[in-house]
Amino acid sequence: MTTDKGNKGYLISIVMVAVLGGLLFGYDTAVISGAEKGLQAFFMEAKDFSYTNGWHGFTSSSALIGCIIGSALSGFLASNLGRKRSLILAGVLFFISALGSMEPEFLFFEHGAPSFSLLVMFNIYRVIGGIGVGLASAICPMYIGEVAPSNIRGMLVSWNQFAIIFGQLLVYFVNFFILGDHIQPLVEEMGKGIAAINPAAQWTVTTGWRYMFGSEAVPAGLFALLICFVPETPRYLVMIGQDNKALGILSKINGSEKAKQILQDIKETITVKTERLFTYGVMCIFIGIMLSVFQQAVGINAVLYYAPRIFGDMGMQDPMMVTVFMGIINILFTLVAIFTVEKWGRKPLLIWGSLGMALGAFGVATTFGHAGLELVTAISIMVYSASFMFSWGPITWVLIAEIFPNTIRGAAVAIAVAFQWIFNFIVSSTFVPMFNMHLTPGDDFGHWFTYGLYGIICIIAAIFVWKLVPETKGKTLEDMTKLWRDEAKK
């Protein structure tokens, strides 16, 4: 029912549809965690090339190439197709990627016969899905921000981050149930031929990973369908001259009187001049970029994408179950950020999160592979992951949305998000080769070097935030413009 204060049910329903894009973002980027071992064993059967750790690192993270492309195109598509149609396109790309990754042989190759050409086709389908993720990562928060009333905009945009983490948890559960009584192949079995692999793991190599990728088609199809029934954002409608439609949507959300005022504000904002990227100095752009770089360089996606492998290498009896438990912890600590960011501020959460991640990373580096310390290693990984979830995970997105002056925000955010996906790809594609490095046969050099490096980066991230990042809690966007203008004059 629409009242003078607007229809909250209408607002909630369209925001819930939009955050499905965030859920798919998390689902698509984490589905590899359960599928990658079976996928690795499958392609190690190829006769025409050697599927090395380097190839596996690339294949496990190839979707991130699409993420870079999608995020780079997001501004152009959102401005020319509109927010709604861009999200429909993202949903279609998710759907195509899910089915194509499940059956990369479709039309062109013999089923179940791994080859270099099939590997290329598989990665093309993953890149297609990545483009959908890149679009969703930029446009879903934009859509929510443009339909939400200003007094609850921050909270509603934060729920998009919750949906990302929930999507990761959901796919952990899905992968766990798909795997069932089957097991993942051991690393030492890979390359010896499917016949030599433990019979309980053969189904995972031939079929299991396919079902894991294909499972995404269900939420992707639902998202592509439901997004057709939500309205375009009022801001975009004003941009294309459809003021009456914009007023109708604003009236449903905010009430008729408030809607007229908001429409006028939007029309004034649309005509705000733009300025050159470095009008407010280099430091403004540098800090925004480095927030994105550190969010990935601390190494969290090496844990999220490879969690079952890590827990399996530790000797855990049921690594998928432990991964699901970690996903639940991630959800809980993401809620901590959502409900404390306005009370505690952005900088304290980032600094304490960095220190918690460093503690967890150093804990993994010093205990991984040591008999009797498996529980300490597992707890260290949980501390590492949970610390990210109440800090760098959600808070980076909040700061990127707030820190830039109005007149350069569009270009600055696009650059920052592009750096985020570039470093996501670098971290994800280098984890397996680094983790498996040995100075002498059988040593643990790769294990302690990898997590020791992540721990050092976490310490540097804490110092960076402490020394350079301004606190945006309680500040208006105009306050940030004044702050950077004053900094540029110094």
Radius of gyration (CA) equals: 23 Å
Largest sheet, strands/sense/barrel: none
Percent strand:
under 5%
* Structural class by helix and strand composition: mainly alpha
Helix content: over 70%
Shape descriptor reads globular
The average pLDDT score comes to 82
Task: Tell me the span between the first and last alpha carbons.
Answer: 54 Å
Give a structural overview.
The protein is mainly alpha-helical and 490 residues long. Helices cover 76% and strands 0% of the residues. The protein is built from 21 helices and no strands. It has helices at 8-30, 32-43, 53-61, 63-80, 83-102, 116-147, 153-179, 199-214, 217-226, 234-239, 243-254, 256-270, 282-297, 300-313, 319-344, 346-367, 374-389, 392-403, 409-435, 445-468, 477-489.
Put the structure in a nutshell.
The chain is mainly alpha-helical and 490 residues long. It has helices at residues 8-30, 32-43, 53-61, 63-80, 83-102, 116-147, 153-179, 199-214, 217-226, 234-239, 243-254, 256-270, 282-297, 300-313, 319-344, 346-367, 374-389, 392-403, 409-435, 445-468, 477-489.
